[in-house]
Amino acid sequence: MTARVLALDHVGVMGGAELSMLDIIAGLGADATVRLFADGPFREALERRGVDVRVLPMGALGDVRRESRGLSPFAALAAWRLAGVVAREAAPARLIYANSQKAFIVAALAARRAARPVVWHLRDLLGPPHFSALNTRAAVTLANWRAARVITNSQATADAFVASGGERRLVRVVYNGVDAAPFDTITNEAALAIRVECAPGAAFIMSVFGRLHEWKGQQVAIDALSQLPADCHLCVVGAPLFGEREFEAGLRAQTERLGVAARVHFLGFRSDVAALMRATDVIVHASALPEPFGRVVVEGMLARRPVVATGAGGVREIISDGETGVLVPPGDAAAIARAVAALRADPMRASAIAQAGATRARRVFGVDAMVRGVRAVLDEVIG
Ligand code: UDP
Ligand code: GLC
Fold this sequence. Notes:
Elements: E1 5-9, H1 16-28, E2 32-36, H2 41-48, E3 52-55, H3 73-89, E4 95-98, H4 101-114, E5 118-122, H5 133-146, E6 147-152, H6 155-163, E7 171-173, H7 181-184, H8 188-198, E8 204-209, H9 218-226, E9 232-237, H10 245-257, E10 264-268, H11 273-278, E11 282-285, H12 295-302, E12 307-310, H13 315-318, E13 326-328, H14 333-345, H15 347-364, H16 367-382
Parallel strand pairs: 1-2, 1-4, 2-3, 4-5, 5-6, 6-7, 8-9, 8-11, 9-10, 11-12, 12-13
Helix pairs in contact: 1-16, 3-4, 4-5, 9-14, 12-15
């Protein structure tokens, strides 16, 4: 069978969008081939799942940032050239599926030449504060003009698209799904061993998971830790995936300044997130800006740990405050510290919240439902 879907993504590293796409593509099986605009671990992970994947370098298009005010002539030329390559690659397929904003721009430019419809899987909250007005307008205009459908990872992402001028009739919400299996297979002994190894001497551990970036709010989690007793430690799990080295250095300096360096453990990028979460007492999601969805929130719930999360964006569709987790305002370190201290003081409540969260995550955020949701949209377009 020829693959009906040509799937595109512009990055080679493993962000949440890529982890999600990995499960979707694996779910589509022989129905999808993948072209990436950068090489890296994402290509390797797709290959391990038996996916037909190749890299088409993006040249100067790689220099464009979320806050950029428009495309430079070099970037525009690179996008146009790449669109020509993509149009040729799309010839055997019935549809182009774009998993990132840059991939969508290229797909939209390729659509007419390829005479193929484009589905954009939008995973970002368009508009300020995440994106410049110009960047948002360009993306929304292209979407209204060229996208056959826009799949969003939450209602919040859908609403931001529409508020930015996107046409609501194009939108289909499909929540992220996360595989529960890795969370169910960690033994208590394994979790204990990780605790001792990662946070020696800690009586209570809170952990924050995600790439290091100011909007992901690791600085807020560190501030919160400094307001908690000395036997409470913080594990910071994640790496600067897109070159945020200065931010990382700033976090380390912050721990020194606050006198908590010995209680904050920077673990870098890990591929054993499930085990690390099981080794933790409370999962903290500290995003300083609204999160479009937040896979880490669902993962904390799957790990049967209470999750304290920023109550904005897509997270409000995942957690119901006080029932399946605890919500705090964005950027509010004192509120995180209070919520963590309260969970520590009341283990019965903490465990009830964790259990309710685990049940909800399994019911609503499964991989099968996500793959079915995406497939339904693609079928709707292909006919
Ligand atoms: N993650 C990981 N290793 C790390 C840190 C994060 O595998 O060291 C994973 C995490 O488990 C989650 C994803 O990266 O599945 C981040 O996705 P999320 O939706 O939370 O945020 P994004 O980075 O996509 O904005
Ligand atoms: C994006 C968003 C994140 C979401 C992920 C998967 O990277 O920042 O909130 O969970 O995509 O859709």
